[in-house]
Model the fold of this input.
Amino acid sequence: MNMNTVNSMEQSVEDTYLKAYRGGFTSTMRWPDLDAFWERLRAQADDQWYVYAVGEAPPQAPASREQLLTFIEEIDALLHREHEEDYCGIVYADNLEQPTYIKIFDPNNLGVTCGFSENPPLPGWILSRIKPVELESALNPPKNRQRWWQQIFS
Done:
């Protein structure tokens, strides 16, 4: 495989992941909604889910079923402990019945998770069936080229 093919494949994976990231999502608004969602996810759990802590290096392989189930238990406990509201509203899925991409926002870094914001916060964690890319750099590429460009025409 030549370098252009490798770069093209990497770009395709990144494009697929970012397209899914920017897709439509539905929130689990109430705690009972989240509980029901976790039950459905547990029933569908397999070893095809990537568990990505945004800000860390993306995983290179999917989690085992056991790792996924442990993550669900731990993140559920964390959300209940640290999100002191009578509503949930911080777990979003592309499909609440058959999810393939789930964003979980950190209760300590919510900002504007719904509605419109120029700089919405990144999720704290993402579960996906698509191999993740490093989200921070993919969404906010280095500004050195932009600065270079601006210097030429300023």
The chain has one domain: 3-152. Confidence is low (pLDDT under 50) at residues 3-7, 112-116. Residues 3-152 form one domain. The chain has five helices and five strands.
